[in-house]
Amino acid sequence: MDINQLDLKKLKYLVTVAQELNFSRAAERLNIAQPPLSQQIKKIEESFNIQLFERSTRQVKLTPQGERIVQQAGRVLEAHSELMLYIRAQSDVDNAPLRLGAIGLAIDVLIAPRMMAFRQLRPNDVIHLEEGTTQQLLAKCHNKLIDAAVIRLHEMNLPEEHLYLLKREPYVLAVPKSWSEFGDHVCLSQLKDKPYIGYPRELHPELYDEIYAVFDSVGVTPKLVQKVRTKSATLALVANQIGCAIVPKSLSSKYQQDIHFASIEQALPTVDYYFYCQDKRLHPGMADLIKLLKS
After folding, report:
1. Could you tell me what percent of the chain has a pLDDT over 90?
2. What is the spatial distance between Cα 56 and Cα 42, in angstroms, rounded to a whole number?
3. What is the arithmetic mean of pLDDT over 268-273?
4. Is the torsion defined by CA of 282, 283, 287, 292 positive or negative?
5. Which of 64, 145, 207, 242 is a good FRET partner for 277, with 20 to 30 A between their CA atoms?
6. Cα separations in angstroms, 196 against 169, 212, 249
7. SS3 track for 97-108
8. Averaged over 104-123, what is the pLDDT?
9. At residue 62, what are phi and psi to the nearest 5 degrees?
10. Residues 11 and 136 occupy one common structural domain
11. Tell me, what CATH number does 257's domain have?
12. Alpha-carbon distance 272 to 270, whole Å?
């Protein structure tokens, strides 16, 4: 089979069977009979000489190769869906959605509080908002899958003309309220032997290294008890007395009943939020959105 013959319909068959792991239920969802669906999947496997599913009288499950192929097929279907939404919107340029990506922290701190003002300013505009990491969102911008992104940067290696600084804030220390020995100002040396909640280094390698260098300067090696990827998960763990964490100051309004927030004596890097877009003319509401986010 020529790869071009693996059309969207067959990809949908493949993904639906993978989701259901049952040919009868998948056929019902697809509104087709079960035998033709089984034949189509078998034909794909034979044409490419790949076994996608392991079948028995009791169950259907994906093979390791099948898992990888289904994952890619799902991405193709998702991209196609996004493309169709955008094409339909382009029939009326003024109603084209502004496809905005944002890291979770920026949605909480910057975007959500300003959405009402944006709606009042541009009542006919629609924003398609999606969450991701800085790296994921930059890749989507470069592949034209989104128009712009609100991201965090530490070391910048992007063209300055594509970046708009929105907010800069310090880090604070978040500790469980039960840790009564911590006042409003703390030295990181006080964290010696205290359980610490951090994040995987690969998320922000340079920032990670700088923060750990500050710990090292006061003779402390953080006693890591948990790694998490989101600030909401971090705060939830602190609130439940799992450990302490370094978080952006804007989050200090959350969990105030269970968390004590303190300023840090040592000089840490700041938390810098940027709006990234390669061309502000991609959407008529882009400039207004940037102004609101900077306000």
Report:
1. 55
2. 14
3. 92
4. negative
5. 207
6. 22, 12, 18
7. CEEEEECHHHHH
8. 92
9. -75, 145
10. no
11. 3.40.190.10
12. 6
